[in-house]
Write a structure and sequence with these properties.
The complex is a heterodimer.
Chain A: E1 4-7, E2 10-13, E3 18-25, E4 31-37, E5 44-50, E6 53-57, E7 64-70, E8 73-79, E9 87-94, E10 105-106, E11 110-114
Parallel strand pairs in A: 2-11
Antiparallel strand pairs in A: 1-3, 3-8, 4-5, 4-9, 5-6, 7-8, 9-10, 9-11
Chain B: E1 4-6, E2 11-14, E3 19-25, E4 32-38, E5 45-50, E6 55-57, E7 60-65, E8 70-75, E9 84-91, E10 98-99, E11 103-108
Parallel strand pairs in B: 2-11
Antiparallel strand pairs in B: 1-3, 3-8, 4-5, 4-9, 6-7, 7-8, 9-10, 9-11
């Protein structure tokens, strides 16, 4: 079983809805990530938090809003999404070695469909 | 040129075959290298890290050639359960881990 837990596993939302994806890890990792993955494509980095501070935002549209309430939790708030935002959203965590990330531990993902 | 390039395949091989995947990366300053495996509609999982000296884990062998900026993965005695997408992953330093597009493997009985 994965040690990174994501909820919900599936989400269907309309373009005017507001919803949130949640991620939790209890491995003591200090770096947490959101990736977006479309079918038959590799994961694309969206955001990185290091020690609860936003470290990287890969020019993600503002309709995606990340939040890191504490070192174990990571949220992704969704508002006014477009159908093309439908994808698998993967949360990951890693140790922060200071020079690179080492292994990424992924959650099972939240499969999002925007109608 | 893409930062990490892989042959997308698919590779269709019979059980028991040996199959090799290649990957090239563009940033010579890259620090760490990995192979991840991703099953259909599942999350990526680490298969193995790749070290300059090469490393082996059972039927899997990974090699790194820094001079040629090239990584390989060899799978011996393929099993049906090896069918998956294999992602070459490079970390040039910091948090920006870069994924290759993945190579799809189908192992058939």
């Amino acid at each position: 079983d994965t040690e990174v837990t994501q909820t919900p596993k599936h989400l269907v939302m309309g373009m005017t809805n507001k919803k949130s994806l949640k991620c939790e890890q209890h491995m003591g990792h200090r770096a947490m990530y959101w990736y977006k993955q479309k079918a038959k494509k590799p994961p694309e980095l969206m955001f990185v938090y290091s020690y609860e501070k936003l470290s990287i935002n890969e020019s993600v549209p503002s309709r995606f809003s990340p939040e890191c309430p504490n070192s174990s939790l990571l949220n992704l708030h969704l508002h006014a999404l477009q159908p093309e935002d439908s994808a698998l959203y993967l949360c990951a965590s890693s140790q922060d070695h200071g020079y690179d990330t080492g292994e990424l531990f992924f959650g099972e993902g939240s499969r999002l469909t925007v109608l | 040129r893409k930062e990490v390039e892989q042959d997308p395949g698919p590779f269709n091989v019979p059980e028991g075959a040996t199959v090799a995947f290649n990957c090239t990366y563009s940033n010579s300053a890259s620090q760490s290298f990995f192979w991840y495996r991703q099953d259909c509609r599942k999350e990526p999982k680490l298969l193995m890290s790749v070290y300059s000296s090469g490393n082996e884990d059972g039927r899997f062998t990974a090699q790194l050639n820094r001079a040629s900026q090239y990584i390989s993965l060899l799978i011996r005695d393929s099993k049906l359960s090896d069918s998956a997408t294999y992602l070459c992953v490079v970390n040039p330093g910091g948090f920006k881990t870069i994924f290759g597009a993945g190579t799809r493997l189908f192992v058939k009985a």
